[in-house]
Amino acid sequence: MTAELEIGLYIFILAGFLGYHIITRVPPLLHTPLMSATNAIAAISLVGSLVVAGRDYETFKYGWICRTLGFIAVTCSTTNAVGGFLITDRMLSMFKKAGEEKKKSSQNHLVLIAGTIAVAALIAFIIWWKNAHGGHGVASQTLKYSYIVSSVMFILGLKGLSSPKYARRGMQLAAMGMLLAVLGTLFDDHVRNHTWIVAGFIIGTVIGGAMGRPLILK
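The chain above was modelled as a monomer; its predicted structure follows.
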């Protein structure tokens, strides 16, 4: 057994015990929002899709097939993440009081707009940095720390979803963890072509938003 496989096995075992400990403490009231949130977190497969879609395939004869499949994967994973978190947010809004819902609706729209602008600015900065500096000396450290922090955010997010009081905050932590992992992956040395990645982000966000917003919850 190699050292990498042994470390991966330890992480898998610890993650299994930790996940079981957190999930079993969730009250029945929050089972549906929890499943929706974990489904959105499962879209972390997006990080692998980014590497496939953004890799340089000039030396490969059928590289366009790999790039197309990567683009489709980015689109589907983005749709899953965006739609999943939107549906979870709407489920959690059912636990709010009527007055609280009206009070925070305008704030949520402002946060959404500000978050979209911030994400677009970060992606633009990453693309500019990699084109200007080649990403040397930054990629490995960025990947390592972004994955560590995002993993902690996922755990804290699931923990927050085990309580009605902190459920919304837990969902927000999980969403930020997903965003951090994606932005960190864009620094990967193998990600060189961002055209298909950005296109997948846009299409997936539109589809996920269109599918998540009009859903009627009773």
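The mean pLDDT is 77.
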